Each structure stands twice: as C-alpha cells, then as structure tokens.
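input
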Amino acid sequence: MTDAHIVGWGHTKFGRLDTKTIEDLIVDASREAISCAGIEAPDIDAIFVGNFNSGLIPDGFISSMALSVDDSLRFKPATRLENACASGSAAVYAARDAIRAGSARTVLVVGAEKMTARDTAGVTESLASASYQAEEGGVSFPQVFARFAQSYFQAHGDHSTTLAQIASKNHRNAMQNPLAHMHKPLDVAFCNTVSDRNPVIAAPLRMSDCSLISDGAAALIMVADEASGDHSNAVAFRSAVQVNDYLPMSRRNMLDFEGPAEAFRRAFDAAGITVDDLDFAEVHDCFTIAELMIYEAMGLAPKGRGRQAIDDGVVMPDGRLPINLSGGLKAKGHPIGATGVSMHALSAMQLVNQAGGMQKKGAALGCVFNMGGSAVANYCSVLEPVRVA
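output
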C-alpha cells in the first residue's frame, strides 16, 4: 500500500509574536516547508490545517488562509482539523490518510495557533472547553491535571521533586532549540520551591509545572512514498496510531492513563518494536505530571515508578532514551494547533541529522506522542529515515 513520507518542514519561532497574525504564521511556516522540500506550490494537491482556537481569536474559519501562501493554491481543497491539543497530529494523520487513499500525492500540513491575543484568564477559559462540560465545566486544565497529580501522589507518594526535575530538564533542553519560546534555564531548586516567581497554580502544580501560552506554527510537506525519491531527505511512518478514550474523567481510572498506554502499545506493535528500540521521543508534557505518567504509559518504568526514568538519567539528553530534546511543551511552547505538527517536524529533523544543537547522534528511530484533552485524543507515531542527504 502507498504510504506517506515527510520530505520538508517549516517552523516559526514559538513565543509571544505580537506582530504576527494567525495568517502570517501559517504563511511563514508553509513557505519554509515548501522551500525545504524543493517543490513548487502548484505541486500541492491538498492542504490540512490543525487549529484549536475555541475563542482564542475571532477567526474560526482559517483553512483557506493557507491559500495566501501562493496564488497557485487557489481552488485546492483545504480542511481544518480540530482535536483539542492534538489538532496538529489530526492534520498530519488526515494528510497521511489522503495519500494512502490515493486522493492526493503531495500534501501541505500546517498547524498554527495565536494564543497571546487573549490574557491568561481568557486563554484558560478557551482551553477549558476541551473538557466534558456536563461534569467538568468551570474546571481549568491546570486543575484537571492537578487531579492527575493528586491521585498519583496519593497512590505513590509526593513526587514534587520529580516534577521539578522534569521541568528543569526540559528548560535545559530548550536552550539548544533556537525556535523555543523560553530560553531560560531553571534549576531543580527553583522549580521545586513555591515563591512569588513560581506560585502554586493548582495544587500540587506550580507555575514551573505548566506549559507556556504561545503563538506559532509548523508545517510539513508529505508525499506518496513512490514519489519521495525526488527528495534529498525523506522520513517514513513506521506506524501511526490514534486512540480516543472517553471524554468524561469520571469514566476513567486516572492512575492508569489508559488512552496513552493503549496508543503506545498499538503503535509499538504495529512498528514491530519495543520502547527499548527508540532513540528519542517527543511527548506531550502539557504539565510535568503528564510527562511523568507518559514514562509509565510507554513502558520506560512500571506504574508508580516513573521517577526511575529521570533519576537513572534514561530520559536525559545523554541517556538511553532522551525525552523532549526540543524543550517540550514546557519550554519550547504549546501553540495548541501547532504542537503535533511541530513534534513531527522536529523529529523528522532529528532523523535526517538537521536538528542542530538538539541533535541526538545516530538517531534512527523516533517516537511522537501528542495528546488532546485529559488523555482523551492520543496520537502516537513511530518515525524512521528513508533517505538522508
């Protein structure tokens, strides 16, 4: 069966980009991806745009903004995908499906979000719409993930220091990523101490445990595998799995993180690998407790013992399986619709030795895990290089 190869990528800087509109971000990332792939805009058959929005900006219908990339894109089909914080991966997977189905051979994927147009309270309100309103209405996402942390601490003891270690690791990693929102190292002591600069947001989560409010965009060019020989770099999907769990938190055991665990299990089975075969992973650390629980969901440590992965150095840049070499959502930033596309773009860069200071030497197998809502929409990709310039 025909499959999709990633052959080009573009990525804006993440951060507070006051002079950039959502359309500017889409255009900038897309033009860079087209140039990287060495194609012409008329070659593109379809466009898929990942964007959450939910009131972050007034523009709720942005798919055709991608036509501003080049006038030759007029009349090309363009579709917006939304699946909470996994909207970017939803766009990536829709593009792959179009190529596998034979309805397109060359596809532009772009994920973008403009978050800083609203204040923190407004952003919090918008993001809260990604929970089950019948039961969780009025609960913010810091409070949602605080519930995960409270349950985890009650079952396995206080892991505040471990969360601080995760935050500090990701901030150090972001120092090597010129595209990251925050270039500021935070030591474990700072992250583990409640202060005016690091207040409690939703106990036990402190500000240093929360991802950033960011603007930004990322883009990919994907082509049918039989056409990728025309490109100097190509990255393939060894597997790609989407798993959706129940939306109400009341229907799930919060300690089991079943949606992420099932996504990893299916993706690894489809790829014919175990977690030990991976060289790196970019995972969804919207809050530090999420990264800790992901260690266990992906099989790096038994339940309740995820701290071993960081205490033993496994997930550090020089460890056996570096996690979030980009700085993760925690320090790279988390423009909602851009996140999943960014993860795939930066992982592709790793696999073709173009990740600069973030580069893991000899990286040949990478994993992307992007999560929407409270572990509801779960996307897990295993990527490998096909051709390296």
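quick obs: The mean pLDDT is 97.
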